Amino acid sequence: MPTFKELWNFAIEDFFTSTAIYVIVVVPFFLVFWVTFKNYFSKRRIQVKKRSNPQLIRKEIFYSFTTLVIFTVIDVIIYLAQKNGYTRLYENVEEYGWVYLIFSTLYVILLHDAWFYWAHRFMHHPKVYKLVHKIHHESTDPSPFTAFSFHPLEAVIESTAFITFAFIFPLHLFALLSWQMIQMILNVIAHLGYEIFPKGFNTHWLYRWKAPSTHHNMHHERFNGNYGFYFTWWDKWMGTEMKNYNETFNKVHERIAR
Predict the structure, then answer these.
(1) What is the pTM of this model?
(2) Which of 216, 222, 224, 206 lies closest to 249, judged by CA?
(3) Of 122, 110, 229, whose CA–CA distance to 169 is shortest?
(4) Which of 189, 191, 203, 188 is CA-nearest to residue 248?
């Protein structure tokens, strides 16, 4: 059983590490697209009319750091469970081998994508939305800082995937970190407000299954539909993909080509 001092030290280290990763990922995207080169990338803006403002961005930053605190608390709980032998997390690659390490990383991404789609739809239920998800949707014109701008209850819901995965199947810490980095980067891109994926991406036989920035941006603008995160297949399968998604994506590239 870890001592209080050990738990406290772990919490401090975990929070500052998570915050550093957050800043390293989010701030460059914001500075490049929203500040330094905003005129250069103006044709890539998904929503032509900018509706975000400094006051909203400050609010997004506040809720983002609240989310990081909650994630730290969850990490401490997982750490405590791991030290008592309750989780399936492991540190020695040789226990399951490199093939399983790679497979488990990909498997977690697929599982998280399915979990996110259905959790996201749940949070849009009228009785849940105002209590949990409304804060995130105040950003109708999302910025990179929107990525972690959650109500505390939503932050807890977001963390349940990590909690579940840690207990149900073997997961190496490197696989866990890789998944978290991938989802953070894709989360920021989804909320970027600018389309960085190339023309034809949305209709290519393979790439059309990956959600570009436009896909999630439309969800923030119109609220219902396009619930997926990494991929578009759940929206396609469940009939929740917005009918004018391809048209909206193509219009952005028509502006870029002018």
Answers:
(1) 0.93
(2) 216
(3) 110
(4) 203
Q: How far apart are CA 11 and CA 18, in angstroms?
A: 10
pLDDT in 10s for each residue of the chain, 258 residues: 788 889 899 999 999 999 999 999 999 999 999 999 999 999 999 998 888 899 999 999 999 999 999 999 999 999 999 989 999 999 999 999 999 999 999 999 999 999 999 999 999 999 999 999 999 999 999 999 999 999 999 999 999 988 899 999 999 989 988 998 999 999 999 999 999 999 999 999 999 999 999 999 999 999 899 999 999 999 999 999 999 999 999 999 999 998
Burial status of residue 204 (CB atoms within 10 A of its CB: 0-12, 13-18, 19 or more): exposed
The answer to whether the CB of 3 falls within 8 A of the CB of 216 is no
142: exposed, middle or buried (Cβ count in 10 Å: 0-12, 13-18, 19+):
buried
Q: How far apart are CA 258 and CA 255, in angstroms?
A: 5
* Dihedral of alpha carbons 102, 105, 108, 109, sign: negative
The domain locations on the chain are 4-196
Q: What are phi and psi of 217, to 5 degrees?
A: -60, -40
Kind and range of the H or E run holding 171 = strand 171-172
How many other C-beta atoms are found inside a 10 Å radius of the C-beta of residue 243? 7
The DSSP bridge pattern shows strands 171-172 and 89-90 to be parallel
